[in-house]
Structure formats: C-alpha cells, structure tokens
Design brief:
The chain has 257 residues and is of the alpha/beta class. The protein has eight helices and ten strands. The two termini are 22 Å apart.
C-alpha cells in the first residue's frame, strides 16, 4: 500500500487511451467529468477494456449533485456495481453521506456487499464530510482500500495541510490518494509535504476545439457556462509528465533521479 501510483480520471475512450499510453497504473472510468463525473456506460467500459490491459476502477454515481441518495438511487447503484463486477472491473469508486455530513455506513455497506472482492475507493464525497478524521476511520472499518481526497479544499495543493494529517492518521491502513489540481509540477511538492505517493489526475491541458463547421451559438444543450464546441480530453504528454513525476518517487519515499 502507498506505493507510487498514478490513476487517470477519464470519461471517454480517447482519454482512457491517452492516459494508458502516458503511463497510467490504473484508470478511474466515469462519464461527464465536467459535472464532477457520473457512472459510465457498460459499452464504454467494454471498449476501454478492449483497448488496454491496466486495471479499471469504475465511478458509481447516478447523478450530478450531493451524495445524499434515495433508496431507489441506492438500488440503481447496487445494480451497476454488480454489472461492472461481472464485466471484469478491478474496483468501484463510491461514496454516500448522511444529511449530517457523515459517511452513511449502512448504505455504504450495502454497496460494498454488491462489490464482492473488488477494490473499493471512497471518492471525494469524503471532502464533503463534517469530520474528516472520523470519516477516515469509518472508511478503514468499511474496508476501503483507497480514499481519494483534495484535503477538503478546491485543490490538493490548497488542501495539503489536511492531506498530510490524513496520511499520518491512515498509517498504511488505507491508501490516501491526492486528487484535484494535480499536475506534474506540483506532484514532487505534494509528496515531499504530505508523504503521499498516490495521485489522481485527468491531465487536461485545455479544451480541444470541436470539428463542427456549422455552429449554432445561440442554443445550449447543457450548462450555459459550457460551450458545445469545446471538448475536454486527457492530454497524453501532460499525463506522461505526471506519470514520470510519480514513478520517480521511491517506494520508501525518496525521489529517484
């Protein structure tokens, strides 16, 4: 646990292949990253599975918004977990909260039961909890292998103080993975400051212009703040730079040349 690892956060086949070519150790596959990520389609999972042989963990999130789910949503999430388990996913990425901002132990346990022996990542629902120290202990009791967190801040660099505290508290019982705003240039600093060796990034440099020639600029199909003619994808070279920065971190914490 806590070996140097870089996980590519991807929501398309092209991004998944860019991350794989760039040196990803693992993928977190989702849909709709521009709204924080939702559960991907089974077809996309099968396509990515055919395209690469690195482990794929699947985000299980039925909708945009908070992490307070109805019984019907939890049923949907459980069925999705069972399906991805049958499809050969390495793990699932989940998180459920109570109205009071604590991990919902009973709901999480139901989902974990559907996962069987798959790896379990507690996603950034953790960053919305009232008491991160208590949430970390609950994650350990539930059997999570990884907690993905920005240190309850807008980015991992901004949350580095809490990340260091969480890494110390975890003491090897669960992997603390830094995510949000992770870039090649800040990975060495984050590692040196916190001790963390696991990082999560989409490695996007900027929007890719759409191939559309005719553009109906007066109509929006989604969030008005997002252009219909900008595509956000993982940049292979950016991911490679991140992967190289992570893989230079020795298992014992040293940075190798």
């Amino acid at each position: 646990m806590n070996q140097p690892l870089i996980e590519g956060c991807v929501d398309s086949y092209s991004s998944a292949m860019a991350a794989a070519r760039g040196g990803a150790d693992r993928l977190e596959l989702c849909a709709n990253l521009m709204i924080g990520g939702t559960t991907p389609s089974h077809a996309l999972f099968r396509q990515v599975r055919r395209g690469c042989d690195i482990p794929i963990n699947v985000l299980i999130r039925p909708r945009f918004g908070d992490f307070l789910y109805t019984q019907e949503e939890l049923e949907e999430m459980g069925e999705e977990i069972a399906c991805f388990r049958e499809l050969g996913a390495n793990g699932v990425v989940i998180g459920v909260l109570t109205p009071e901002g604590e991990l919902n132990r009973s709901a999480m346990a139901r989902l974990i039961d559907r996962a069987g022996g798959m790896e379990l990542t507690l996603h950034r629902a953790f960053d919305m909890t009232r008491d991160p120290a208590a949430a970390l202990e609950e994650a350990v009791r539930l059997g999570c292998s990884t907690v993905l967190t920005s240190g309850q801040a807008q980015s991992a660099p901004a949350g580095r103080d809490l990340l260091r505290t969480l890494f110390t508290q975890a003491s090897g019982r669960v992997d603390i993975m830094a995510g949000a705003g992770v870039k090649a240039e800040n990975i060495p600093m984050l590692h040196a400051f916190t001790g963390i060796r696991s990082f999560h990034t989409s490695a996007r440099r900027g929007a890719v212009d759409s191939g559309m020639i005719y553009r109906k600029e007066s109509v929006s199909m989604g969030l008005p703040s997002l252009s219909e003619y900008e595509l956000w994808r993982t940049d292979e070279e950016e991911f490679r730079a991140c992967a190289q920065a992570v893989h230079r971190l020795g298992a014992g914490g040293e940075v190798t040349p």
